[in-house]
């Protein structure tokens, strides 16, 4: 491992000054970097915690465990119950606020009970320019965002992850399954399970960065640009992908001709 960059050193000093921390840990690159830096700065006084709920995609927990081990941080899980909230299930534009209220509320209680001084998130500077109602929930609970404070964007975070030799350095973003459901369509456990089955079925065909957007009885696949071109040029592969989505429980399957766009359901469609 090379000598720490000025950014890494500054982040470690900031986290170390807190004394002890719980990291809200999904296993994605952002929270992985915060967890790894917390372990370096605080050792046994740092704990990574992953929330388990029906909105967590298959395989994400195993991935989080592997990253925590590589980062050298203690790792635990808690159960969250955002689906018990009617405000969350009705799925308006503040869905993430209600989800994060549940998560950060439980982590804050855990921190107080166990004697940790702060709860940290992996929010980065790029998040400040997007629709992120979860940041408001974080403010309500006093959650700190070291990457955001340091003005570190996604590119810098991935560079830190490579320098720290984290297995999540190139991991595509994987937000909760509810993010595939358009605002106004209720979030239901059966819907989350169907989305999860469909995405796992498409991944089994060899695709990596994708979303299956839920539109009633239609599952619409978005693929990253480097994979989309090959799929659109091969009718047989398109048939295989559509069949996999239908086997997951959708009556109809579509392939979006535009490349995958994080947060595309926030876009205004004509």
Report on the structure:
The chain has 270 residues and is an alpha/beta fold. The protein folds into 2 domains: 158 residues, Rossmann fold; 79 residues, Alpha-Beta Plaits. The protein is built from 11 helices and 7 strands. Helix 2 crosses helix 8.
Topology, pairings included?
Layout: H1 6-16, E1 21-24, H2 29-42, E2 46-52, H3 60-71, E3 74-79, H4 86-89, H5 95-114, E4 118-120, H6 134-140, H7 146-149, H8 154-163, H9 189-204, E5 210-215, E6 218-223, H10 225-232, H11 235-247, E7 252-255
Parallel strand pairs: 1-2, 1-4, 2-3, 6-7
Antiparallel strand pairs: 5-6
Helix pairs in contact: 1-2, 2-3, 2-8, 5-6, 9-11
Mean pLDDT: 94
Q: What is the overall shape?
A: globular
Biggest sheet, spatial arrangement of strands: 3-2-1-4
**What is the assigned CATH homologous superfamily of the largest domain?**
HUPs
Could you tell me the strand content as a percent range?
5-15%
Give me the count of strands: 7
Largest sheet: 4 strands, parallel
Structural class: alpha/beta
CATH topology of the largest domain: Rossmann fold
Per CATH, the architecture of the largest domain is: 3-Layer(aba) Sandwich
CATH hierarchy class name of the largest domain: Alpha Beta
Compute the gyration radius: what is it?
A: 19 Å
Q: What is the domain tally?
A: 2
Q: What is the helical fraction, as a range of percent? A: 40-55%
Count of alpha and pi helical runs: 11
Distance between the termini: 50 Å
Element string (H = helix, E = strand): HEHEHEHHEHHHHEEHHE
Low-confidence stretches: none
């Amino acid at each position: 491992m090379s000598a720490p960059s000025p950014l890494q050193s500054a982040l470690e000093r900031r986290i170390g000054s807190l004394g002890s921390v719980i990291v809200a840990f999904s296993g994605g690159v952002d929270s992985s970097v915060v967890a790894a830096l917390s372990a370096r700065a605080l050792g046994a006084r740092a704990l990574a915690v992953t929330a388990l709920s029906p909105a967590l995609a298959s395989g994400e927990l195993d991935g989080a465990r592997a990253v925590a081990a590589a980062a050298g941080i203690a790792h635990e899980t808690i159960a969250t119950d955002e689906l018990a909230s009617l405000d969350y299930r009705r799925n308006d534009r503040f869905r993430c606020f209600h989800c994060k209220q549940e998560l950060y509320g439980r982590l804050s209680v855990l921190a107080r009970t166990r004697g940790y001084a702060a709860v940290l998130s992996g929010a980065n500077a790029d998040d400040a320019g997007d629709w992120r109602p979860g940041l408001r929930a974080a403010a309500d609970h006093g959650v700190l965002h070291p990457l955001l404070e340091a003005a570190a964007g996604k590119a810098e975070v991935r560079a830190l992850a490579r320098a720290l030799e984290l297995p999540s350095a190139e991991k595509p973003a994987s937000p909760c399954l509810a993010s595939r459901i358009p605002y106004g369509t209720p979030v239901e456990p059966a819907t989350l399970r169907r989305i999860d089955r469909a995405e796992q079925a498409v991944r089994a065909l060899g695709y990596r960065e994708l979303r299956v957007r839920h539109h009633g009885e239609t599952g619409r696949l978005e693929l990253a640009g480097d994979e989309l071109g090959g799929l659109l040029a091969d009718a047989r592969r398109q048939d295989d992908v559509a069949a996999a989505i239908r086997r997951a429980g959708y009556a109809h399957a579509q392939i979006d001709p535009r490349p995958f766009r994080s947060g595309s359901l926030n876009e205004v469609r004509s």
